[in-house]
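Fig. S4 source data, part A: sequence.
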Amino acid sequence: MRNLIFGINITLDGCCNHTKQFADEEVHEYWTGVLREAGLLVYGRKTYELMVPFWPDVAKTQSETKALNEFARVFDSIPRVVFSRSLDSAEERRAEGKTRIVRGNLRDEILRLKQEPGKNILTGGVDIPSQLIQLGLVDEYLFVIGPVIAGEGRRLLDGVSLPEKLQLKLVESKIFKSGCVVLRYVKQ
């Protein structure tokens, strides 16, 4: 069974708004390694629209730094599932057949995807991961905490109501030169 991994960049005060983040070469290299271990990306519409077509375009043009170009290349090679009721077509975002839009039941679809053979499933963003956490479907959590106090913006897991406390086990920590800290937890 494939694991479902939730990964996100956040600030010290829990802000997950992408405009408030700190992401340098080292952070992008880290996420590139995480992507290499993923066989499927799962997003909601908002996160998908932040990622596509930007990263596929960078993958084609190789117009950024070495680390960003490699991140883009790996990102663009992975199939994506997008949960959306409003997105009509992935092709309109130049996804070139790598994206499937799902309008059905989130729980049932993720359980089905977890049963498929292959590498792990990686999810990011806020709305869909929050729902997946509430459903108890996330197996692993990756937080890259940036050395920033945003003071404003959307907070991680705002409005999430868990049926019970979620106890996690720390299995990895890493400190980057920039002061970013990676914390990797698994569900106990």
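Fig. S4 source data, part B ends here. The chain is about 30% helix and 25% strand.
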